[in-house]
Amino acid sequence: MLQIKIVAVGKIRERFLMEGIKEYAKRLSAYIRLEMTEIADEPCPERLSAADEERVKDREGERLLKGIGPQEHVILLDLQGKEFTSPDFSEYMDELALMGKSSVTFIIGGSLGVSGEVRKRADYRWSFSRLTFPHPLMRLMLLEQIYRAMRISKGEPYHK
């Protein structure tokens, strides 16, 4: 069974998001083993110098990379990444399985983005859209897309 890990900066505080995440995690349990890890975000005042922003990203980046093994296929959610359609994402996940990639880790960075080290570690950079979304909402959206991809892959009715 495919192992999917989601590593994200920050804590989800909104109950409606937690409930949605819990629901999709339950749905996904028939298809994958899911692990979700929250990484503490660095204190970040409104106005930071460029050097301070880099320090924040570096510290968060160290924590993001800490639990990622060398064999894991890493997908970074990134505004500058490539976009998928839902069927294309499903096909990509199927291709990973065919290549023997049994462990896939998705990274959702903090409000300032991610460090250069995190970008280097990423095997793929995926953009959901050119729009900016709240990071906690991205976790729910990611789980929904993973669920949709699993259903498409199995030929089950869901994708419309």
How many alpha or pi helices?
5
Task: Please give the CATH class.
Answer: Alpha Beta
Total count of domains:
1
Percent helix, as a range, is: 40-55%
Q: What is the count of β-strands?
A: 5
Shape: globular
Fold-level CATH name: Alpha/beta knot
**Main sheet record:** 5 strands, parallel
* Low-confidence blocks of residues: none
Structural class: alpha/beta
EC number: 2.1.1.177
Enzyme class: transferase
InterPro entries: Alpha/beta_knot_MTases (IPR029028), RlmH-like (IPR003742), tRNA_m1G_MTases_N (IPR029026)
Main location: cytoplasm
Give an overview of the whole structure.
By secondary structure, the chain is of the alpha/beta class. The protein has one domain: Alpha/beta knot, CATH 3.40.1280.10. 43% of the residues lie in helices and 22% in strands. The chain contains 5 helices and 5 strands. The chain has helices spanning 15-28, 50-66, 86-98, 116-121, 135-153; strands at residues 2-9, 32-39, 73-82, 103-108, 124-126. It has a 5-stranded parallel sheet. α1 (15-28) links the parallel β1 and β2 (32-39). α1 (15-28) runs parallel beside α5 (135-153) and α3 packs across α5. The two termini are 26 Å apart. The mean pLDDT is 94.
List keywords for this structure.
methyltransferase; alpha/beta; rRNA (pseudouridine-N3-)-methyltransferase activity; 43% helix; EC 2.1.1.177; Alpha/beta_knot_MTases; Alpha/beta knot
